[in-house]
Write a structure and sequence with these properties.
alpha/beta, Rossmann fold, Helicase, Ruva Protein, domain 3, Arc Repressor Mutant, subunit A, 3 domains, two-stranded antiparallel sheet, disordered N terminus
Length: 322
């Protein structure tokens, strides 16, 4: 198995995969049934925000099926030829994982239609200076697509995924358990209160939590600590610029702009981007999505408005530390 992820903190079996219980329970059935039929797992679509474990689950499926996994990112597939080359090299039972599959070009997407449905692709070849199209049969394989923007997938492609899972956000308790499991792999002992603190600022996202854990672990290694408590974690998070509820400097600047610079009046996204010197996509995806989730801001027809919760949070910043 091509497993470049073996030395990471990814779960290696279903028991290690915390959260998403409904998805895991259904997957166990589908995988067991595929094994009993001696067929490939049906094509599977994983939908959800970045960092929730879609890639980890794709690797886990390959572990459970004991099949090779080939990983692509749709943004790196520049030409249909690149996708065709990958498809032509697949072996029976292989798993092809395409991350951010919504970013595929239309031409690449159309290649997948016949590959997914009937396991063949059409190749353009030259014979005696003439071009002709020949059918190239593919072995049965499983395509796993991951997307943060399912609304950008065309209906023909979406319909070819007979297994479709949508990830939900994690709870602080679930992320604490993920961190506990990861800390054992890092050979560092963390007090449970320390892990809960990291989980509380993770934006309900395992990837964010694990990234913080690794950075804190770097500090603890240099400081030669055998045990890490919440006081130490609080100190490191402050050094990393992580505020209460996981907000960062850009989030705070955003809220202060709405409250202090625009007197709680609606502000358009272009004005916000210009004021903060960031592009619209960064503001919308990296800042606003989470602030809306916390009910700190809301979108109106006239622009973004800070809420009473957002104002209360700002007022508490100089009083409250992590």
């Amino acid at each position: 198995m091509n497993n470049e992820e073996s030395n990471t903190l990814r779960p290696l079996n279903f028991e290690e995969f915390i959260g998403q219980k409904e998805i895991i329970n259904n997957l166990k059935i589908y995988i067991q049934a595929a094994k009993l039929r001696d067929t490939s797992l049906d094509h599977t679509l994983l939908v959800g925000h970045a960092g929730l474990g879609k890639t980890s689950l794709a690797y886990l499926i390959s572990y459970e099926l004991n099949q090779n996994i080939i990983v692509l990112n749709a943004n790196s597939i520049e030409r249909p030829k690149d996708l065709i080359i990958t498809l032509s090299k697949l072996n029976e039972g292989d798993i092809l994982f395409i991350d951010e599959i919504h970013a595929l070009s239309k031409n690449c997407e159309e290649i997948l239609y016949s590959a997914m449905e009937d396991f063949y692709i059409n190749l353009n070849v030259k014979n005696d200076l003439k071009k002709e199209v020949i059918r190239f049969d593919l072995p049965p394989f499983t395509l796993i697509g991951a997307t943060t923007k399912v609304e950008d997938l065309s209906k023909p492609l979406l319909d070819r995924f007979s297994i479709n899972f949508t990830f939900r956000k994690y709870s602080v308790e679930e992320i604490t358990q993920i961190l506990f499991n990861a800390s054992k792999k890092l050979n560092t002992t963390y007090k449970m209160r320390a892990l809960k603190l990291i989980a509380s600022v993770s934006r309900f996202t395992p990837r964010v939590a694990l990234n913080y854990l690794k950075r804190i672990n770097d500090y603890s290694l240099i400081d030669n600590l055998k045990y890490v408590d919440h006081i130490y974690v609080c100190d490191i998070l402050n050094k990393l610029g992580i505020k209460n509820k996981g907000l960062k400097d850009l989030d705070i600047r955003y809220l202060k702009m709405l409250h202090f610079d625009y007197d709680d009046k609606p502000v358009g996204i272009n004005t916000i981007s210009s004021f903060l010197n960031e592009n619209n996509k960064v503001i919308e995806e990296m800042v606003e999505n989470y602030l809306i989730e916390l009910s700190f801001i809301r979108k109106t027809s006239k622009g973004r408005v800070i809420t009473s919760k957002g104002i209360t949070f700002l007022n508490s910043l100089h009083k409250k530390k992590l």
